[in-house]
Amino acid sequence: MTDNYIDEEFSFDRYPKTDNFSLKAWNAADEHILNYLEDNDLFRPNPVIYNDRFGFLTCVLNYLSPVIVISEKSQEKSCRLNMQRNNLKENDERFVTPLASLPGKVDLGIVKLPKSLDLFRLYLDHLSAYLHDDSLVICSFMTRHFTQQILEIANEFFYEFEQSKAWKKSRVLILSKPKKPEPIQITNSIEWREKTFKQYFGVFSAGNIDYATQFLIDNITVKNEDKTVLDLASGNGIIACAVKSKNPDCEINLIDDSFLAVESSKLNLSGEKIFFYFNDTLEDFESDYFDLVISNPPFHFEYENNIEVALSLFNDVVRCLKIDGRFLLVASRHLNYRTHLENIFSKVLTVAENDKFIIYECTKHIIPVV
Ligand SMILES: C[S@@+](CC[C@H](N)C(=O)[O-])C[C@H]1O[C@@H](n2cnc3c(N)ncnc32)[C@H](O)[C@@H]1O
Fold first, then answer.
1. What is the span of the domain harbouring residue 314?
2. Ligand 1 center to residue 212 CA distance, Å?
3. What pLDDT is stored for residue 297 in this prediction?
4. CA of 221 relative to ligand 1 center, distance in Å
5. Each residue of 10-43: pLDDT tens digit?
6. Could you tell me if 37 and 171 lie in one domain?
7. What pairs with residue 358 in β-bridges?
8. N or C: which terminal CB in the chain sees fewer CB atoms within 10 Å?
9. β-pairing, 357-363 with 347-353?
10. Are 34 and 82 in a shared domain?
């Protein structure tokens, strides 16, 4: 559904699309930033925007030529689609990842607070080197998501910070007088079964290996004939590592929508026949290519939960799977994926289950022409 902003001056779609009409491409925390900038005449040059999920701030502030920090491929696609929709010129140089250099000094930082406060730290660390004494950083969030830790992180990087009054249940946090500390460590380490996994801040399951993932790894069979394998929604790459340990000769492909997830998996896997993809669909892959696709598919997206993205990925999988290839996935019981999977694949088996999770094996067979 397309939503209009300011008397139809701008219009926005969400990418990926959703059937939930209550979900918009922006919220009060986005508008609060614009109001704050306007009320205080803060439209400064050289802005950088972080975590603009669907491109709302990117489009409305386009006339300031902001640099957009892109953490997800779907975010980049959404920003670009909304720029096209609003007849704004896309400039590739203005899209950077959170591990890339910024083009120059920053007078104004704009941060829509991510759910992961580690990721907020990573963003402030990224920004820090480009700030000068008079730079300002404006962060916004919904009041119900406030925690004291936000201020503690702000205090690591800035001498001064103040919060606005609440407006439509949102607040802005204004950070000034940057401290410019030494760069911080931006990865976590997870010890698991005699191996250490590294991952950048903000990547799925920071403190431990997810229980659903562990259950999947403990119950997968990888056959010698599985020559081409895809770890779909690969996070830090732990599932790909498990597949490679069971069949070292296979070609393993990893794909994730999160840039920092893909970069994390590069820290955990090296060797031959390992390929990394930063994307949110399987458009990079040929049809009938994989012997095995394996996944703990996404379900949480910041503060939203939905199965639409997973269902769309399942439809991609059926195209990319070889005839008689297998798709192994783990899911929480309550998601009730079976009916959806049965509509997409020829055969769906339960491989293992416990009180929380189910592992399905889905196959695609030749449909006989009668
Ligand atoms: C439940 S986590 C699993 C991560 C990892 N495989 C593990 O087991 O620890 C789901 C992952 O899906 C990724 N993701 C979300 N949407 C995606 C999409 N459209 N395509 C690929 N990956 C996606 C997220 O970034 C996240 O890393």
1. 187-363
2. 13
3. 98
4. 21
5. 999 999 999 988 899 999 999 999 999 999 999 9
6. yes
7. 331, 353
8. C
9. antiparallel
10. yes
Q: Looking at the structure, do residues 169 and 306 belong to the same domain, yes or no? A: no
Q: How many helices (H) and strands (E) in the chain?
A: 10, 20
Q: Is residue 27 in a domain?
A: yes
- List pLDDT tens digits, range 143-182: 999 999 999 999 999 999 999 999 999 999 999 999 989 9
Judgement on whether residues 58 and 173 belong to the same structural domain of the protein: yes
Query: For position 368, what pLDDT does the model report?
Result: 55
Residue 368 is assigned to a structural domain of this protein: no
Q: Is residue 369 part of a domain?
A: no
User: What is the whole-number distance in angstroms between the Cα of residue 310 and the centre of ligand 1?
Assistant: 9
pLDDT of 176: 98
217: domain CATH number is: 3.40.50.150
Pocket lining: 261 vs ligand 1, CB cutoff 6 Å: yes
Nearest C-alpha to atom 20 of ligand 1 is from which residue? 280
239 lines ligand 1 (CB under 6 A): yes
Residue 337, in any domain of the structure: yes
Q: List, for the chain, all residue ranges whose pLDDT scores fall below the cut of 50.
A: none
Q: What's the domain count of the chain? A: 2
Position 336: which residue type? N
Q: Would you say the CB of residue 298 lies under 6 angstroms from ligand 1?
A: yes
Q: 297 alpha carbon to ligand 1 midpoint, in Å?
A: 6
Burial of 64 (C-beta count, 10 Å sphere; 0-12/13-18/19+): middle
C-beta neighbour count of 209 within 10 angstroms = 18
